[in-house]
Design goal:
Helix 2 (about 60-70) runs antiparallel to helix 12 (about 300-315), helix 3 crosses helix 12 (about 300-315) and helix 8 (about 180-195) packs parallel to helix 9. The two termini are about 35 Å apart. The chain has helices spanning about 5-15, 60-70, 85-95, 110-125, 140-145, 150, 175-180, 180-195, 215-230, 250-255, 280-290, 300-315, 320-340, 370-380, 405-430, and strands at about 30-35, 40, 45-50, 105, 130-135, 160-165, 200-205, 235, 260-265, 275-280, 345-350, 355-360, 385, 390, 395-400. By secondary structure, the protein is an alpha/beta fold. It is about 40% helix and about 15% strand. The strands form three sheets. The protein has a seven-stranded mixed beta sheet, sandwiched between helices. Strands 1-2-3-13 form a four-stranded mixed beta sheet. The structure holds pyridoxal-5'-phosphate (PLP). Pyridoxal-5'-phosphate binds near residues 109, 110, 137, 237 and 240.
Length: about 425
């Protein structure tokens, strides 16, 4: 396989798939195999995965692959038939949650999970308005795209939905985090003025596309109380933070002591297999279920359930939540040390293995170092380390590796980032 064949593939891809599919990196990576925290390209080169939360327990984990193959060779149907697997899986998931979350519903993607959560919230509250953060991403269906300004811009928003500033803990001395509840109240007042009844506040508990923030727990708890007082529900989108990534329990909402009305799940749930879901308070779906019912042909199929359970097994057996906490702390310490030497780093923040490194310009406003972030992401890719960036300015390095990431892996990433930032400093000065 030659470099030319990668270019040929990119050209064919563009011709066959059209312009909507964007590849990462100036020089896209053509991956053919994954194992643990490693990805291999068509030339056999190895890349350290510092980015993928989908293969959360490691790429192609043998226990997950074996569970998938075993069940796929035995039976795959859907939830119209009785199956032990989906019931056992639902029971195991629910056991990780506050008892008020009594039912689990299954989908194939995070978008579908959020779409279903919106339907349930609108049905249960008789409201329509959904409030999300300014650079949120919640999915690709019609309803979720309308609350995903990070993909479609504010224009994607429909009339009933509202945006509020993310609880930014860095800029303006963290004022957006402290003003979060006031901003929510303002949005609710505006909705009321426009004759719109709120259905829900939906938050990604890691604020991933907003730039990764972990505001004070009290702020989020108060926000949940305020939306409830206004008649809406609090929906925790755990598509990013869930399944142990934050290194303190299974879910992001637990970190903040929240008790959501609905929790939505996706990406890391199946270690690469498409599975998603929603855990809900039973009273919210009692009428919904009899009036409209819910069936998803592939959601909750036995193969997906077997995969989901295997993922839970691995999280437990390999102590991945502890690992996320220990290695995440080590990585953040190392990034903090880099920040002392590289003024481009304005802020290092995160929980467990969900880390944001905000790159800023040397001006008084610490404005977003957008092109520097793109340069760093590509510089790391040249050093065979894969990460990406997020936030409204695209200037927050997003480090979110598979959970088995080791201290050694973290050190390799730190060293490569140090070299890349040093190169950039030289490049900018000359
Ligand atoms: C927070 C969040 N919610 C929902 C989704 C949508 O999930 P999916 O792409 O599986 O539909 C994503 C995907 O990036 C996400 O990050």
């Amino acid at each position: 396989v030659t470099e030319n064949s990668a270019v040929d593939l990119a050209v064919r891809r563009r011709r066959a798939l059209g312009p909507t599919y964007h590849a990462f990196y100036r020089e896209p990576v053509h991956l053919v195999r994954g194992e643990g925290v490693w990805l291999f390209d068509a030339q056999g080169s190895r890349f350290l995965d510092g980015y993928n939360n989908v293969a959360s327990v490691g790429h192609c984990h043998p226990h997950v692959v074996a569970a998938l193959a075993r069940q796929a060779s035995l039976l795959n149907t859907h939830t119209r038939y009785l199956s032990d697997l989906i019931v056992e899986y639902a029971e195991r998931l629910l056991a990780t949650c506050p008892p008020a979350l009594g039912h689990a519903l299954f989908t194939c993607t995070g978008s579908e999970a959020n779409d279903l959560a919106i339907r349930i919230a609108r049905h249960a509250t008789a409201g329509t308005g959904i409030i999300v953060t300014r650079t949120a991403y919640h999915g690709a269906t019609v309803a979720t795209a309308a609350i995903s300004p990070s993909a479609g811009g504010a224009a994607a928003l429909t009339r009933e939905n509202r945006l509020i500033a993310a609880p930014d803990t860095y800029r303006r001395g963290g004022a957006d985090a402290l003003e979060f509840v006031d901003n929510l109240r303002t949005a609710l007042n505006e909705m009321s003025r426009d004759g719109i009844k709120p259905a829900a506040l939906m938050l990604d508990t890691a604020f991933s596309s907003d730039g990764i923030f972990f505001p004070p727990a009290a702020v989020l708890r108060e926000a949940a109380a305020v939306i409830r007082a206004a008649g809406g529900l609090f929906i925790a989108d755990e598509v990013q933070a869930g399944f142990g990534r934050l290194g303190s329990g299974m879910w992001g909402f637990q970190r903040a002591g929240l008790e959501p009305d609905i929790v939505t799940l996706g990406k890391p749930m199946g270690d690469g297999h498409p599975i998603g879901g929603a855990m809900v308070k039973p009273e919210l779906v009692a009428k919904f279920s009899t009036e409209t019912g819910y069936f998803n042909t592939f959601g909750g199929n036995p193969v997906s359930a077997a995969v989901g359970m295997a993922v839970l097994d691995v999280i437990e057996r390999e102590n991945l939540i502890d690992n996320a906490r220990i290695v995440g702390t080590h990585l953040r310490d190392g990034l903090g040390a880099l920040a002392q030497r590289h003024p481009l780093i304005g802020d290092v923040r995160g929980e467990g293995l969900c880390i944001g490194v905000e790159l800023v310009r040397p001006d008084a406003a610490y404005s977003a170092a957008t092109s520097a972030a793109a340069w760093v992401v590509n510089g790391l890719r040249e050093r065979h380390i894969l990460i990406s960036s997020s936030g409204p300015g695209g200037n927050v390095l997003k480090i979110r590796p598979p959970l088995p990431f080791s201290r050694g892996n973290a050190d390799q990433l730190l060293e490569a980032l140090d070299d890349t930032l040093s190169d950039l400093a030289l490049y900018v000065e000359t």
